[in-house]
């Protein structure tokens, strides 16, 4: 059983639940995934939620970056999900971790981090999910 962390837009809860079930059905343990934080306690709760998420990335076997289509953009990837992916890459490079980083799909060229993602795919630091 591998440990999985799912990164992605918290606003795509239906997709998150799909991917959570996808990994669990393969017999893997999902350590963490984007969960909504209530607005009335956001500032108090978010720092710990964020810390726990990054801690789970250091413990995972697979970081699955769920860059589903959003706002009319194929393979949307926001700044926070990109930062989480960067953290996974940094863990592998600096600490010799062996986190498998899987991107759900190739993002559209209008995604701000497209050039880095393309380079990282060429370097083999990340890979695309095989359907």
Provide a concise account of the structure shown.
The chain is of the alpha/beta class and 131 residues long.
Notes on the structure:
- This protein is of the alpha/beta class and 131 residues long.
- It has a single domain (3-128), classed as 3-Layer(aba) Sandwich (Rossmann fold), CATH 3.40.50.
- It is built from 4 helices and 5 strands, in the order E-H-E-H-E-H-E-H-E.
- It has helices at 13-25, 42-59, 79-95, 114-123; strands spanning 3-8, 29-32, 62-66, 100-103, 127-128.
- A 5-stranded parallel beta sheet has the order 2-1-3-4-5, sandwiched between helices.
- Strand 3, helix 3 (79-95) and strand 4 form a beta-alpha-beta unit.
- The longest helix has 18 residues, at 42-59.
- The radius of gyration is 14 Å and the shape is globular.
- It starts with a strand and ends with a strand.
- The mean pLDDT is 97.
Search tags:
131 residues; alpha/beta; Rossmann fold; five-stranded parallel β-sheet; 5 strands; 44% helix
Distance between the termini: 20 Å
Q: What average pLDDT do the residues reach?
A: 97
The assigned CATH architecture is 3-Layer(aba) Sandwich
Biggest pleated sheet: 5 strands, parallel
The best one-word shape is: globular
Nearest-angstrom radius of gyration?
Answer: 14 Å
Indicate the low-confidence ranges by residue numbers. none
- In the CATH scheme, what's the topology name? Rossmann fold
Q: Would you count the extended β strands for me?
A: 5
Q: SSE order in H/E notation?
A: EHEHEHEHE
Instruction: Note the total helix count.
Output: 4
Number of domains: 1
CATH class call = Alpha Beta
Share in helix: 40-55%
